[in-house]
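Lab meeting notes turned into a lecture example. A postdoc, R.K., suggested we walk through two folding results consecutively so the class can see how the record format repeats. The first protein's sequence and structure tokens come next.
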Amino acid sequence: MKYMNGGQVQESFFLHDWRKFACHASTLYCGRMTSSPQDAALSLVQQYYAAFNAADAEGMLTLLTDDVRHDINEGETQLSRESFRAFLARMDAHYREQAADLVVMASADGTRAAAEFIIHGEYLKTDAGLPEAAGQRYVLPVGAFFEIRHGENVPRIARVTNYYNLSDWTRQVGG
């Protein structure tokens, strides 16, 4: 299993207009895939979090399949890119978040990937069924799991499953 650690790989992995291509010596060459499905999966998940940190919802959505499965932490499963778009809009209205200390791992065949990171967030507006928002800040470890499809030489994320400790988040925001 390979991994890319945001802290350790920072010097050799950088994003330059990531929507066009991500430059990494073992993954891409001149914007074209030149190596394994595993490297493609690693790059895809890195691009996903680069878009997340840039608050670029459309950039995230372009990395997903049309029928993406989204397993929401302690919530429902949603199917489709449009459902994911609505989820991102809700999240943007209520939270401001950045993923830090990102580590990405992928299976040898590139069909599965996992990410571990620390989310640094601010609770902006009260979300239904949750404590009142007042700009509280929180820091949480998160685990995310991905299914990846490699079609037409363009990998896309077909499943996103996120896990974090909701009780810890609730404690941090004063609920």
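The second example is placed directly after the first for contrast:
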Amino acid sequence: MKKTLFFFALTITSLGQLNAQDFKIALSSTLPVFDTTRHAAALDVSYVFPITEKFDVGLTTGFAIWFKMPTYQLGGGLQIAKEDQASMVPVALTTRFNVAKRLSLGLDLGYAFAVNTDIAVNDGLYFAPKIQYQIFDYADIVLGYRLANFNVLLSEGNQFSTVDKTMDMITVGLEFKL
């Protein structure tokens, strides 16, 4: 009987904590940061829960796409990218620190999987700091920076080499709490 009451109390306590968790979806767009992009867009899905009154932690994933990547010429006419688009799927730990009632700072840190590229790209590091301002109870304006560092495999004849390729963007978007 004691075990049943303990299990019941644990279940009720866990369900009460479930309300404190947030499921969020964000849409963002950007203009070029450096020569690595021309235009980019992203969709993110996050699941966060409070650790303290001012600090939240969770997981995030999404899809980011860079439209019309420029061609980079290396010595001897070797190209590491062509006029095309590249995209990634990040999987990361997300953190939020509530600085004020409506203002928070965040950081996503994890791994980015390169998808839909015409060149040999290894997956790599994903880093995305952000600042958020709550405009409604269910929506934030988000200003952030998103960086993914990949290794690109190059081949010319029988010789292979790798080059670090950084794809980055400054994003402005909306995040909705569902």
